[in-house]
Amino acid sequence: MTEDTARRPPVTRRGVRTRQALVDAARVIFERDGYLDARLSDITAEANCSTGTFYTYFNDKEEIFAAVMEATKNEMLHPGMEHVDGVDDPAAIIEASNRAYLESYRRNAKLMQLLEQVSNIDPQVRELRRARGWVFVERNARAIKDLQERGLADPDLDPVMASRVLSGMISRFAYATFVLNDGGDFEELVYTATRLWCNALRIDHHLPGRDAMRKK
Amino acid sequence: MTEDTARRPPVTRRGVRTRQALVDAARVIFERDGYLDARLSDITAEANCSTGTFYTYFNDKEEIFAAVMEATKNEMLHPGMEHVDGVDDPAAIIEASNRAYLESYRRNAKLMQLLEQVSNIDPQVRELRRARGWVFVERNARAIKDLQERGLADPDLDPVMASRVLSGMISRFAYATFVLNDGGDFEELVYTATRLWCNALRIDHHLPGRDAMRKK
Amino acid sequence: MTEDTARRPPVTRRGVRTRQALVDAARVIFERDGYLDARLSDITAEANCSTGTFYTYFNDKEEIFAAVMEATKNEMLHPGMEHVDGVDDPAAIIEASNRAYLESYRRNAKLMQLLEQVSNIDPQVRELRRARGWVFVERNARAIKDLQERGLADPDLDPVMASRVLSGMISRFAYATFVLNDGGDFEELVYTATRLWCNALRIDHHLPGRDAMRKK
Amino acid sequence: MTEDTARRPPVTRRGVRTRQALVDAARVIFERDGYLDARLSDITAEANCSTGTFYTYFNDKEEIFAAVMEATKNEMLHPGMEHVDGVDDPAAIIEASNRAYLESYRRNAKLMQLLEQVSNIDPQVRELRRARGWVFVERNARAIKDLQERGLADPDLDPVMASRVLSGMISRFAYATFVLNDGGDFEELVYTATRLWCNALRIDHHLPGRDAMRKK
DNA sequence: TATGAATGAGAATTCATTCAT
DNA sequence: AATGAATGAATTCTCATTCAT
């Protein structure tokens, strides 16, 4: 569906190398100049190949952007609220999850900003972002449902709806903090996000006070 | 310093009229075509003036976009968590506040989408959006602090930090719903937002269950 | 002939003042930005009047440039090789003449540069420059003829031709020195110009050597 | 540093051909319309290529003008006062030198006029002209010094300063004659220039009278 | 596969000049 | 006389995409 006119993948070893060089170069240029100001000629220059070569592997800027996103998928697939081996305290799991998410966001801030930018321009990328977000939402929804069933969370909340709101809350917070540079001490960010998340679900936690948390 | 070539505001009635026509036209075109696809010539055509006239008042697209945003400031400065006459139930105030915010967002969805899009393109607009966000954040932070002092909200939260998270939560929620069309029944949205907000602050509410809310 | 469509001169006192303000402003702007980059709107802004007012007094940029040149005529009409009261030594007269010319050029370097620039653009100004040069050439030609008749200068030179060459020599030298900034000590410039001029005419001078001249 | 966006020179034969076609076309258009009235689109039309191709090799009009000047460097680097094989009469050498210079100037009058015009507009070209002028000045300064050392020229002149004045004299004379069309018989021009130059340096010449010279 | 030159549609922008007030 | 807003013709410049080698 999205690969209608896509160039066939490279078959020779040299082809693989060239394509990879283009994708790497594109990431550099996109992060440096943003999606709109990135010129294909900048990308090919960075990749040390000619402009014509670009079209051997990609049809246009959107397509190479998709390739960059595909290549960085692993860096971006944020950890969700999942089981942590040997830990069963819901609050601790949530905290670990939030910390992992925020750390990952911070590490990939440039890329996240790019994703945000392009998803406001290209519907296909918007779809990509939504799909990625949804993975996160669903994982958290399952966790919430589980807590509800175990009587540990507010049963009056629709798990999916609550997850959408809370997942969005964290991602928006991360965006404001690491892309818009709203700032704040990292541990405090984790603490606040976690406490609000737990409170929101009415998790019967025995959270320590702020000061105790901070000492960690 | 940044206003090198800034056009001066009109002094005659005619000038005021023309400038306003341009701003109005720009809003129409921006909402119709998006920021990137809007051509200045479309704007001047819509405003029934020559292309040259555009430059009497603005230097470029960014500048007229800023003017559009300025002109719609009142529509966009969302109501926050403030006192509602004769009501002292915190949960009711929060609900009213959220409802007002979401309604306002829904009404101006196109404009909000634009703001979102352009703030990922133009640093000046990014700053504008951030500033507007902070108005909201600070107002809510004051309300949270007040509730804490009255012993009605979780005292272990930093008011500003908590407000950043929760304000972001609502705005992200509104964006997903009204811009990305994630859907959902409006009353349910208000209910969920409010419940999560109250829970998050550990407000000692006596909220009715979901079904009761829905009947409203 | 040149005043075909010229605006009528101002009659009221206010008109005189405004026109003068425009001419003064034009000189400032022309000297600052050069003829080509000077915008009429810059001139009117500098003169504290509206753009429309410009056309009350001038038809276009060329016309106000002519007015600037007219206004500075006195500063620019360079002294020539004329009688100096009580002095009859031809070499001394030539030296005084060259010194006066070079000083005048140095003082008005900006204006001379402008005249040079515009005369390469506007034929009318080219004519003006030629006419001004010619005044200088003729005055010097008369002086040369006089010296020849008195047996003090090389009789094998055509006075007008020699004057053209020598007058041009000084003006070109002044241009290179004060506009192109070729530099050099002022007294040395005067000395060299004078000595060459005298030599060229084979004036039977008793010129002191370089070092003696320099001590002056 | 100043070559931010400088286009790189062509590497293929085709590229060389196209670039050359553009430079040739530019010379035609510049000579026909003058620098200011020359439109890039005229140049590309004359070169039979698209407007975009222009930017493959040049950034703007100034740059292609510089390329035209570079390409005509050999035609323009005027012969100076140098040794003429088998001739040792200084006056004869000076005459040959002046004749060569004036002939070269006459041949390239259009180009010289352009150089004059543009150097009053573009500082880079001004620098270029100055540099070219200095080549001439220095060569003549060396010749003057040589004559002084051999006791054949006025020792009280600084060679460089005298050369500046005299070289400027010839170039100004040529400009007036061939660009401003001040007229005059060519042999008479050569005669006058030579006689004045020799006189100015007090070269002990045995120049024939004017009429004798003219018969050549 | 790779190259790099050629293309050209399309939009922004300037500013002298006019003109109604 | 003065004002200042409106005009629009005219050019430059960009860069994704094609294509011959």
TrEMBL record, chains A, B, C, D:
Residues 16-76 form the HTH tetR-type domain. PROSITE patterns: HTH_TETR_2. Keywords: DNA-binding, Transcription, Transcription regulation. The keyword RNA-binding does not apply. InterPro entries: Homeodomain-like_sf, HTH-type_TetR-like_transc_reg, HTH_TetR, Tet_transcr_reg_TetR-rel_C_sf. It comes from the Bacteria. This is TetR family transcriptional regulator. Residues 39-58 bind DNA. One of its GO terms (molecular function) is DNA-binding transcription factor activity. It comes from Nocardioides gansuensis. SUPFAM superfamilies: Homeodomain-like, Tetracyclin repressor-like, C-terminal domain.
